């Protein structure tokens, strides 16, 4: 997860500054790069979920990391905007095939009790920052698996449970759509920040090293609060816990728009890490609790379609509004509003009632 996510997403806050300085590309053009990764996610998400359920996570991760490596080789030779976009599309394809979805499916199959804590111990899109200070990946404690051979589970779908929903059944529930759109609305601002944070700090007169340290602060905070979020998810209703953490994330974005001093930017980083990290394990755990294990990969893949439609908007909108208004303030305030709306959608998501199968 760390290898697949850090260079593609978190490092973009640093790369965007260097790319703007070297090539002179606009903020809107840079914002489109991560948008193209979401086009890949929207088109490939259902297929990735199906293949994960059919082929198993280990094969998917192996294939995905090879494709990701090819994308990095293309990125190393970028000399034009269209090649930059091609590189990001290939890297996104590899990251999608070999990272978040197969790993989340594996954990959902391996662990049943305390599932949110198990998700919290994985760097779910929230790995160490791309700057020199390094953090050690948190590993799951022994004795937590509820099955004798979890590696077998990664290769074969789990036996059907009466409480599990099929993908078709999940699509008919309000919870599926509330969770999918809630996840999408609360992720729009994350993608925008990953792209534009370094550029925003540059506008305020800070250098790229400062950007790197702010990324370190929010990712390190998020790593801690992934564990906190997982702990709370085992003790609170997950929809309520999600509302709390996404509201903190929205508040962090408001702080970002008001910030003018380095101290305020670090306050943003801490609040954003709390909200971002706390919600991460819960967005996946709530799907496992509500829909079960049997078709989890397919359901998770299908839910990426409405999510990625929303994610297409955030980053380019922020860049475009910065280009025409010479400020990110309005764009990020709008995204903070969408973020809070997503938290409300999570709050209204209720576990579906499953009729007994004959």
TrEMBL record:
<dbReference type="InterPro" id="IPR036259">
    <property type="entry name" value="MFS_trans_sf"/>
</dbReference>
<protein>
    <submittedName>
        <fullName>L-lactate transporter</fullName>
    </submittedName>
</protein>
<feature type="transmembrane region" description="Helical">
    <location>
        <begin position="330"/>
        <end position="349"/>
    </location>
</feature>
<feature type="transmembrane region" description="Helical">
    <location>
        <begin position="299"/>
        <end position="318"/>
    </location>
</feature>
<dbReference type="InterPro" id="IPR020846">
    <property type="entry name" value="MFS_dom"/>
</dbReference>
<feature type="transmembrane region" description="Helical">
    <location>
        <begin position="240"/>
        <end position="256"/>
    </location>
</feature>
<dbReference type="InterPro" id="IPR011701">
    <property type="entry name" value="MFS"/>
</dbReference>
<keyword id="KW-0812">Transmembrane</keyword>
<dbReference type="GO" id="GO:0022857">
    <property type="term" value="F:transmembrane transporter activity"/>
</dbReference>
<feature type="region of interest" description="Disordered">
    <location>
        <begin position="121"/>
        <end position="164"/>
    </location>
</feature>
<feature type="transmembrane region" description="Helical">
    <location>
        <begin position="60"/>
        <end position="78"/>
    </location>
</feature>
<feature type="transmembrane region" description="Helical">
    <location>
        <begin position="213"/>
        <end position="233"/>
    </location>
</feature>
<keyword id="KW-1133">Transmembrane helix</keyword>
<feature type="transmembrane region" description="Helical">
    <location>
        <begin position="262"/>
        <end position="278"/>
    </location>
</feature>
<feature type="transmembrane region" description="Helical">
    <location>
        <begin position="84"/>
        <end position="103"/>
    </location>
</feature>
<dbReference type="GO" id="GO:0016020">
    <property type="term" value="C:membrane"/>
</dbReference>
<dbReference type="InterPro" id="IPR050327">
    <property type="entry name" value="Proton-linked_MCT"/>
</dbReference>
<feature type="transmembrane region" description="Helical">
    <location>
        <begin position="175"/>
        <end position="201"/>
    </location>
</feature>
<feature type="domain" description="Major facilitator superfamily (MFS) profile">
    <location>
        <begin position="172"/>
        <end position="358"/>
    </location>
</feature>
<feature type="compositionally biased region" description="Basic and acidic residues">
    <location>
        <begin position="144"/>
        <end position="163"/>
    </location>
</feature>
<dbReference type="Pfam" id="PF07690">
    <property type="entry name" value="MFS_1"/>
</dbReference>
<keyword id="KW-0472">Membrane</keyword>
